[in-house]
Specification:
Length: about 80
């Protein structure tokens, strides 16, 4: 199954926009968001149980709270696929 587009930030400028997708086959939610600034990254790393750093092959992304319904919808799509 293809990756399913779930939603885009309704307050976006359409050029730089947080986006949510669901990949039911891989059982994954895909998020596009803003990179955090250095201070935010440091605060996240300070609370991380994984040695206090984010590996090069991972990322911290910022997603606005107004997108929570889209993230829930992506979670629901994954759960529905698991029930098949």
């Amino acid at each position: 199954m293809a990756v399913q587009f779930v939603g885009i930030d309704p307050n976006t400028d359409r050029d730089h926009c947080p986006t949510v997708w669901a990949d039911a086959e891989a059982q994954e939610i895909l998020l596009q968001g803003w990179k955090p600034d250095g201070q935010t990254r440091a605060r996240c790393e300070a609370t991380s149980p994984a040695n206090g750093s984010v590996p090069d092959n991972e990322a911290i992304v910022r997603i606005p709270a107004r997108m929570i319904p889209m993230i829930r919808e992506a979670c629901d799509a994954i759960e529905r696929a698991q029930l098949r």
